[in-house]
Structures are given as structure tokens and as C-alpha cells.
Design brief:
With about 150 residues, this protein is mainly α. The chain has one domain. Helices cover about 80% and strands about 0% of the residues. α1 runs antiparallel to α2 and α3 runs antiparallel to α4. The longest helix has about 30 residues.
């Protein structure tokens, strides 16, 4: 018999995604504006488009990852370091494949230039994803089933 494992709620995943993207944009918009010699508005709009895409992918990706965790009898906030690394790298690979055409078009780059740009951004974001998710899980741990029952 498999045990029931508590999962993050939709509201919790939404809070995660919005908080993640806002803090990330606070880092990337000034850096992108300086590097590409573009206005904060220009890079900010690009950031908004890429962030909205990333948020949608994040909601789906994290839900799928949570289902895998649950099938293996663990909650997402109890992931081991290896699973966290797999989570972060897999997520970023998904984002790279969906961001290349956006960067190339918006910044008027070749696909290779867009790939180089995306790899630099992704390198930063992989580390950020790992650290943000670790901190998020500490600040907002998944409630155990008994805690959920008591709260109802």
C-alpha cells in the first residue's frame, strides 16, 4: 500500500513562481540593459515576456515533478541535493529551448548569439533556481498530511 503524500497547493505554486520571477528580474534587467546597451524598458519588456513564459512552464514542470515525488513517497521540500540539481537543470533546459527564438528576434541576434546569451543567463539562473527553491522550501515547507488534517 502506498502512502499519501502532501503536495504544494496551486496557490503555493503561484506564490513560488511570482516571487521567483520578481527577484530574478531585479537581477537580470539592470545587467541586460547594461550589457546590450538597451533601455531598462526594452529589456524589461523582454524580461516580462520571458518571465510569463517561464511562469507557465514552471507551473506545469513543478506540478509534474511533484507528481513524481509523490509517487516515490516524498514531498518536494524533502528533495535530496541530487534531485534538486536534476530539477533545476531540467527546468533550465526546457526554458532554453523555448527562449532562443524570443531572444534572437527581440535582440536582433543570430541563433548562435542568442544561444550564447541564453547560456550565460541560464548559468546564472540554474544556481539561482537551486538557491531560491532551497530557501523557499525552508520558508514555506510542505505541510505534512497530519498538519493539513489539523488545519482543516
Amino acid at each position: 500500500m502506498s502512502k499519501t503524500v502532501a503536495l504544494r497547493t496551486g496557490k503555493d505554486r503561484l506564490r513560488y513562481s511570482i516571487t521567483f520571477e520578481l527577484i530574478l528580474m531585479a537581477f537580470l534587467i539592470p545587467a541586460g540593459a547594461a550589457f546590450f546597451e538597451r533601455s531598462f524598458t526594452d529589456i524589461g519588456v523582454l524580461g516580462l515576456v520571458v518571465s510569463l513564459k517561464a511562469m507557465l512552464i514552471s507551473l506545469i514542470y513543478n506540478w509534474v515533478f511533484d507528481q513524481v515525488d509523490a509517487r516515490n513517497g516524498r514531498v518536494s521540500s524533502d528533495r535530496a541535493a541530487g534531485a534538486r540539481i536534476l530539477h533545476a537543470v531540467g527546468f533550465e533546459l526546457t526554458l532554453v529551448l523555448t527562449s532562443l527564438p524570443i531572444y534572437a528576434w527581440w535582440l536582433d541576434l543570430t541563433i548562435l548569439e542568442a544561444l550564447a546569451t541564453d547560456l550565460v543567463v541560464t548559468s546564472f539562473v540554474v544556481a539561482y533556481t537551486y538557491l531560491f527553491t532551497l530557501a523557499y522550501d525552508r520558508v514555506f515547507p510542505v505541510l505534512s498530511n497530519s498538519a493539513i488534517d489539523r488545519a482543516s
